[in-house]
Amino acid sequence: MSNTIKLTVGQAIVKFLDNQFVNFDNREEKFINGVFGIFGHGCVVGLGEALEQNNHSLKFYKGCNEQGMAHSAIAYAKQNNRKKIMAVTTSIGPGAMNLVTAAALATTNRIPVLLLPGDTFACRQPDPVLQQLEQFHDFGITSNDAFKPVCRYFDRVSRPEQLMTALLNAMRVLTSPVNTGAVCVALPQDVQAEAYDYPVEFFEKRIHYIDRIEPNVKVVDEAIKIFKNSKKPIIICGGGVRFSECGEELAQFASKYNIPFGETQAGKSAVEFSHPYNLGGIGVTGGLAANEIASNADLVIAVGTRLSDFTTSSKWLFAKDNVKIISINVNDFDAIKMNSLPLVCDAKKGLIALNKQLEEINYKASYTNEIIEIKKEWDKEVDRLYTTELGPNNRYSQLRALGIMNEEQFAKNSIVVGASGSLPGDMQRVWRAYERETYHMEYGYSCMGYEVSGALGVKLANEEVEVYSMVGDASFVMLHSELLTALENNIKINIMLFDNNGFGCIDNLQRSQGIPKFGCELVYRGKDSNRIDSTGEKLQVSYAMIAKGYGCDVWTVHNSEELKKALEESKKSTKSTLIDIKVDEDSMSGSYKSWWRVGTPEVSQKQSVIDAYKKLQEEIKKTKKF
């Protein structure tokens, strides 16, 4: 009996991917559940032929934009806490290059996605083929070499037998809590169609065990010494809490030791907002409660967070002298940031280890009524923001619209998806996640255009609940192609489009640094104008009509009554919906005891800019140097 099977490279890829499983906490799940693809000459007759065959269980979704469909795949993996993923395939050249941004997004956010772009001919005989990049100094370079800086693992299969090591290494990285991110396996279009006698065992069911990394006991001892000298600690709940699936452990830890916690964008909804020790968002886009407590903390326990500038307010937030940081993280690269004591381990294992020893010394943080009082004050402020009808320009308030959605209209198990603009700031501050894992924000890369695509991926991961894309008008214009994919596959997503006339968030940042309005608004310009300014009449765009042309059910609203009616009607729709919400461009929330370091000019013709630079230098002096 033969121990080999003759398959093309494309057929071997499909057969292999269809038999990959992961085991986490003795829970076994199919790892790769489908493929997003846009076919072109570089993949349609190779991998495309294999996907067309009816001998596998991988679902195929035809995308409309390569970056967009990759975002959908990333969102699917993120919402499944990295235990289930999708693969993505494209043609060569521009199709492949459209994946590069998404690859960077996945790697930045530590989310697994498998990219299978077509490549030029390995044999080189038809060269230069359509869409082939030629570099005069190195004939071996192709467009796909652009993936190398943005992927955790890159390989190019130039011979059929190379596929085995390529896919095994791809799985090694994709299933690793430490090293995961984008994986690119480039597939020359001639090689995709070439056959090889592959060992049968290569295609047998393969289970990848995702282990919980145990902490070093000596580092735990060092952490306990720090706790003994701490009276006012705070926990940062990062995305690693969700990926470790230890929200309950963190909630119990906080309650047991009287320690409040703030949430990062990725960690928000790991624990319900109503938990008595949940202070809400922390950092630049955080709220009053978390930032007030953090500024006076003598110990920060960073759980599953990269300690980005938004979380730490550009290393400014933790203002107390000699504040200590303990970082619980599976990745030592992240664990050492800001001179942290690195407790390199799974988040759940780290909390369990600390709990055991803190219990022995009867540790308790010395907060009395501070947590209760600051939460009351912040809740009162959120209620005020949620009920104020108009913004500074007497147009409909973006925050009022969010309040109606959050408090009145959305089911508590609905999932909200976002990524960029002013909405992530507003939502980290004020959005109340009533149930766990209902807040999905891509804010590691903050990529405009993720919101609609991400909503599709989240819906595929949670088919039974309503999914809402929270997107600004500029981000919607930049990329909303996968709305068509949702309509084509009868997958309902809901687009909440906040029209604030352009790049409202950046316009706000611009003006905060003393720079007049410039280049961020949507305005009619004179034919002879060489400036992008706000002197022209604002463009009146009907985003509802764009979506209606695609086939969505749509509404345009200008006030609360219209919004409530539209939301009620949208719930009855069986297909994707879009509500075009015309909001005041200045009705976003402000900062609450936070600061963000930006590159303000040192010299300028405007005194307002010089003043902003002087203020920047004053705040830089307050930041930590690590």
Provide an overview of this structure:
The protein has three domains: 206 residues, Rossmann fold, CATH 3.40.50.970; 158 residues, TPP-binding domain (Rossmann fold), CATH 3.40.50.1220; 158 residues, Thiamin diphosphate (ThDP)-binding fold, Pyr/PP domains (Rossmann fold), CATH 3.40.50.970. A six-stranded parallel beta sheet has the order 5-4-6-7-9-8, sandwiched between helices. The chain has a six-stranded parallel beta sheet with strand order 14-13-12-15-16-17, with helices on both faces. Strands 19-18-20-21-23-22 form a six-stranded parallel beta sheet, sandwiched between helices. α17 links the parallel β18 and β19. The longest helix has 18 residues. The protein is globular. The model has no long low-confidence stretch (mean pLDDT 95). The chain contains 24 helices and 23 strands. With 626 residues, the chain is an alpha/beta fold.
Question: In percent, how helical is the residue content?
Answer: 25-40%
Q: Which CATH class of the largest domain applies here?
A: Alpha Beta
Terminal CA distance: 63 Å
Low-confidence segments: none
Gyration radius, in Å: 25 Å
Let me know the average pLDDT.
95
What do we call the CATH homologous superfamily of the largest domain? Answer: Thiamin diphosphate (ThDP)-binding fold, Pyr/PP domains
Which structural class matches the secondary elements?
A: alpha/beta
Task: Write out the strand line-up for the largest beta sheet, numbering strands in chain order.
Answer: 5-4-6-7-9-8
The CATH architecture designation of the largest domain is 3-Layer(aba) Sandwich
Strand content: 15-25%
Q: Structurally, how many domains make up the residues? A: 3
| Major sheet details | 6 strands, parallel
General shape: globular
Tally of individual helices: 24
Q: What's the count of strands?
A: 23
The fold-level CATH name of the largest domain is Rossmann fold
